[in-house]
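Translate sequence into structure tokens.
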Amino acid sequence: MFAFAFALRRRRRGRLVLTGSAAVLLAVSTGLTAAASEHRTDPLQRADPSQRADLLQRADPLQRADPPQRNGSLQREVDAIHASGAVGAMAEVTSPGSHGTARAGAAESGTGEPMPQDGRFRIGSATKTFTATVVLQLVGEGRMSLEDTVERWLPGVVRGNGNDGRQVTVRQLLQHTSGIPDVLPEIAALRSAAGYRAERFRTYTPEELVGLALRDSRKFDPGTDWSYSNTNYVLAAMIIREVTGHSWAHELNDRIIRPLGLRGTSTPGPFPFIPGPHARSYASYGTGTSTDVTVLNPSMGVGSGSVISTTRDLNRFYAALLGGRLLAPAQLDEMTTTVDAPELGVRYGLGLGELSLPCGGSYFGHPGELLGYHTWSGVTRDGTRTAVVYVTSDGGPDTQQAMSTLVEKELCRTGS
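Result follows.
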């Protein structure tokens, strides 16, 4: 079954591990404007063309590294993920001066076709990190505040059943402390194979999604508790549109995708197909019987889960983000200041989760899922090491554990 929220559970030894993943969907790449407004705080946008090339190179360890090397340990970790029941698995890791890739399994169930080397996939709720980054850029530019209410930008949109946009701030949306209910239970294509077949091409508007979510009562008074809700990020996307006059997809492309050269990343809107090379995805909906769910209109995930990307692009994005190339220090501090997320057993900032590393310290990341595509991304606090892994099916009971173990091992690895 598709789960918009990622969940972690404690193993018998008390260790936190990934057990579920998050909302996702797609979006179509839009054209961007090369020139940036003069007041932007984003160093990539403020730089002239000659400076920007240097900033991009420093932001992306993959551009400075040698060609990807076969890494025996990484390959064993990916083989273990495949052996756990995943149809296909792919991982890519970076560290200063080097990076490695590994893949296992098939691009299509029942065939010998290998996983594509730089295949595209739906990244699910890892989309939330992109959305939060755009909001924080706008905050850094002085165009909005984290303490603005939802009502200020979307008057009358959040009302009913105890939900009140006059009482909810932008910060609470990004941190999942708003109390606004999740729209997930209302999306038939994500609940069952029959629902998928009936509604895989259905288009939702953001306003419709919010209306569906608000059929339910708010979960708690804003700011008093924590609960994962994709509706929060649908509202964040709507606010981006109101602040900028452009769509959420346009701003993602203008501010992140194009400047970082994320050629395999797109915001496909209602387009149901994945452009470029990709493996097919399979969901079991908890029944044990797999359904090919590769084709899906992801409009229900605007802001919350609709981005398509690659392992290479996600590594580049997270390295640039934590390396300080996308946000000014004050906004990056806001993003990485975390609170307890007891529902998940982790800490959560603004569009990023914080988890402990077995070698000491912590790392940041965000899982994602859309109907078979499951991903986990991790990056060290300084942005110098990244790890991204994805699978193309729900896998077995140990698949998610094997994915989180890979990320932990690679971020803890010493040397290059």
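Note: The CA atoms of residues 17 and 405 lie 8 Å apart.
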